[in-house]
C-alpha cells in the first residue's frame, strides 16, 4: 500500500517532476536502517515531514529535494541520535552553487523543529584571519582571495571538532565575506552544543592525487587547456590537500551532491551570484566571477571532485533535479 501511495503521490512526473526511481530511494532508505520504504514513508507522512522548516527552502525548491535528499539526510541524523550518546560528524560535499548551503540551513531548522540538537557549519567558517589569509592566497593564478585548499585554519578546525567530540561544546569562528571590500575576515565566534554536527564544503572529502604529485606537470583531460602557471599551482594545491586528511577521517558519513557533468557548476554558481546580487546588492561579477569559476574548474582535477570517497551520492542534472540516489 505504501509503495503504491508513494508512487501516486511522489512519482507522478507530470505533477512533481521527480526523476529518480522509487527503487533508488528504497535502497537508500534500507541503507539508512529502515526495514522497508513503507515504514519510512509512514513515519515522515505521520509527522508532516514534507512541511518541516518549509520556509527555509529556496522558492524554487521541488519535492524531489525534500523526499530525495532532505528527509533521507534527516533520517541519517535520526539514526545517529537514536543509536546512542556518541556524537557524530556528517559531511556534505558539493560544487559551488549545487545547493548544499541551502540544504544545510534547512537541515538545521528542521532538526530544531524535531527537537534535535544539530549544528550545520561550513569549511568557510574556518578561513584564516585576514593577514594570514592574504599571505596564503598570494600568487595563485586565479587571484581569488579565499576558497582554495590552504585558505583554512586547519589546526583550529581539528581542535574544534576534537573538543566537541570529547566534551560536547563546539566553538567555531565566523567569517564575513563582505568585510574588507569583499576580501573577507573573521568577526567573532559561535558556540553550540550539538548532538550531531554537519560540515559542508566544495572540496570536502577530496584527497590528494598521488599520481598527479608524482608526475611532472600533468595535463587534466577534463579541464580547459591549463596554463603553465595553473599546472604549477595545482601541484601546490595537491600538497596542501594532504593537510586536510585528518579532518576528513573524522567524518562518520559524507553525503555528496554530485552533478552528472562538471560543467554545471559554472551555470549554478553564476545563477547563485545573480540571486545574491538581487538579495544583498553584492556578488561576484565580471572578471572576478570568471576567475573564480576558472579556479573551480582547474585548481583540483575534476575527477577528484566527482569521485569522492563518499557514502551517499545524490546525482543532479543541469536544473539541479535529483536523477539518482546511490550508496558507495
Give the CATH architecture.
3-Layer(aba) Sandwich
What global shape is seen? globular
Count of individual helical segments:
14
SSE string, helices as H and strands as E? HHHHHEHEHHEEEHHHEHHHEE
CATH class: Alpha Beta
Classify the secondary structure makeup into a structural class: alpha/beta
CATH topology, by name, is Rossmann fold
Could you characterize the architecture of this molecule?
There is one protein chain. The protein has 328 residues and is of the alpha/beta class. It has one domain (85-327): Rossmann fold (3-Layer(aba) Sandwich), CATH 3.40.50.300. Helix content is 45%, strand content 16%. It contains 14 helices and eight strands. The strands form two sheets. It has a six-stranded mixed beta sheet with strand order 2-5-1-6-7-8, covered by helices on one side. A two-stranded antiparallel ribbon has the order 3-4. β3 and β4 (185-192) form a beta hairpin. The longest helix has 20 residues, at 63-82. The protein is globular and about 55 Å long.
Amino acid at each position: 500500500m505504501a509503495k503504491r501511495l508513494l508512487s501516486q503521490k511522489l512519482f507522478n512526473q507530470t505533477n512533481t517532476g521527480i526523476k529518480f526511481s522509487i527503487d533508488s530511494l528504497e535502497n537508500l532508505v534500507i541503507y539508512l536502517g529502515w526495514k522497508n520504504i513503507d515504514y519510512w514513508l509512514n513515519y515522515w507522512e505521520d509527522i508532516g515531514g514534507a512541511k518541516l522548516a518549509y520556509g527555509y527552502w529556496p522558492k524554487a525548491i521541488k519535492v524531489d529535494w525534500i523526499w530525495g535528499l532532505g528527509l533521507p539526510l534527516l533520517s541519517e541524523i535520526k539514526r545517529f541520535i537514536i543509536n546512542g550518546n556518541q556524537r557524530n560528524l556528517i559531511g556534505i560535499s558539493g560544487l559551488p552553487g549545487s545547493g548544499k548551503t541551502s540544504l544545510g540551513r534547512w537541515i538545521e531548522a528542521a532538526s530544531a523543529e524535531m527537537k534535535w540538537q544539530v549544528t550545520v557549519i561550513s569549511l568557510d567558517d574556518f578561513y584564516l584571519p585576514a593577514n594570514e589569509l592574504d599571505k596564503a592566497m598570494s600568487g595563485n593564478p586565479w587571484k581569488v582571495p579565499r576558497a582554495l585548499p590552504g585558505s583554512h585554519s586547519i589546526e583550529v578546525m581539528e581542535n574544534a571538532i576534537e573538543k566537541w567530540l570529547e566534551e560536547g561544546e563546539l566553538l567555531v569562528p565566523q567569517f564575513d565575506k563582505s568585510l574588507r571590500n569583499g576580501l573577507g575576515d573573521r568577526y567573532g565566534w559561535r558556540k553550540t552544543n550539538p548532538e550531531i554536527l554537519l560540515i559542508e564544503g566544495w572540496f570536502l572529502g577530496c584527497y590528494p592525487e598521488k599520481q598527479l604529485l608524482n608526475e611532472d606537470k600533468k595535463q587534466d583531460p577534463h579541464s580547459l587547456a591549463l596554463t603553465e602557471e595553473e599546472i604549477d599551482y595545482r601541484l601546490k594545491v595537491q600538497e596542501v590537500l594532504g593537510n586536510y586528511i585528518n579532518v576528513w577521517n573524522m567524518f562518520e558519513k559524507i553525503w555528496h551532491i554530485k552533478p552528472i557533468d562538471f560543467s554545471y557548476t559554472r551555470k549554478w554558481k553564476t545563477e547563485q551570484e545573480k540571486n545574491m546580487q538581487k538579495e544583498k546588492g553584492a556578488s561576484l561579477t565580471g572578471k572576478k566571477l570568471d576567475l573564480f569559476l576558472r579556479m573551480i574548474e582547474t585548481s583540483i582535477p575534476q575527477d577528484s571532485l566527482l569521485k569522492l570517497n563518499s557514502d551517499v551520492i545524490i546525482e543532479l542534472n543541469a536544473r539541479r533535479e535529483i536523477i539518482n540516489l546511490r550508496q558507495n
